[in-house]
Specification:
The chain has 2 domains: 56 residues; 38 residues, no CATH class. Helices cover 72% and strands 0% of the residues. It is built from 6 helices and no strands.
């Protein structure tokens, strides 16, 4: 009889393989060979892993699946910039200025340099 820890380890392994889209029949063979259990026990483990996947909500949110919003990135950088200036953090301020410049170029803005040497 397997301990609860061993069973949970099998379920965790099965879940990882299912999330990698390994076919169920192949996964049953893998579990059977790796953990020295019968195929029926392997299928029971796969069923438990599938139930665990269905019950969990640890996938990405809908907003995380969309392409990156350049305006949102720039707004977030601007907010962090204002906080860094208010706190007097010079190093963070310089880093954020560079990041905002990079974000503007990434959006396709034509930035004008203020350097008299350019």
């Amino acid at each position: 009889m397997a301990s609860q820890v061993e069973i949970q380890h099998r379920v965790s392994y099965a879940r990882a393989m299912l999330e990698r889209r390994i076919p169920v029949a192949s996964l049953a063979t893998l579990i059977s060979a790796r953990y020295f259990v019968s195929r029926s026990t392997a299928y029971n483990t796969i069923t438990a892993a599938e139930q665990e996947i269905q019950q969990s909500d640890d996938g990405p949110a809908f907003e995380e699946m969309e392409p990156c919003n350049p305006v949102g990135v720039l707004a977030m950088l601007q907010h962090r910039f204002e906080i860094a200036v208010a706190m007097g953090d010079d190093k963070q301020t310089c880093q954020l200025i560079k990041a905002m410049d990079t974000a503007k170029k990434w959006q396709g803005y034509n930035t004008q340099t203020v350097s008299p040497f350019a």
